Amino acid sequence: MSSVTSAAKAPRRRLPGYRTRTEPPAPEATVSAQTDGPIEPLIPMPELTPDALRAAVARIAPSRIPALTQHLFEATTNAQQTQSLAPLRAFVHSWAVFVAIQRRPERAARLHELERLIDEGEQDPTAAITEIRMIWETAEAEAGL
Fold this sequence. Notes:
By secondary structure, this protein is an all-alpha fold. The chain contains 6 helices and no strands. It is globular and about 45 Å long.
């Protein structure tokens, strides 16, 4: 039990599957431990601008910068072609949710675990899909979307 407590208190090292009190419980097929309290995010939630989101992604998931850059290029091109801001709004929404999830390593780890469970296809995915939806809704709320 003390290893769970020390892992939960470590500022940047998290074990996959651990969650805070505000996160939903794990599906029945997986084991998850509850921490003593909320864990601080790695970074504050940035402003919802392409530059601020790029800076946040550079800090928490630098390997995703090429995907962000490509998505921004496509969104800008589509916005110009359609004379609509909708593609840029979709870009901001997508990357704001990504940042909101990734800035909390325990949440990101749980999301990846749930996605893996679904990809394996060995269990009923209903509980995992419900929890993924809750993670996304929480991230959207944190981002102010």
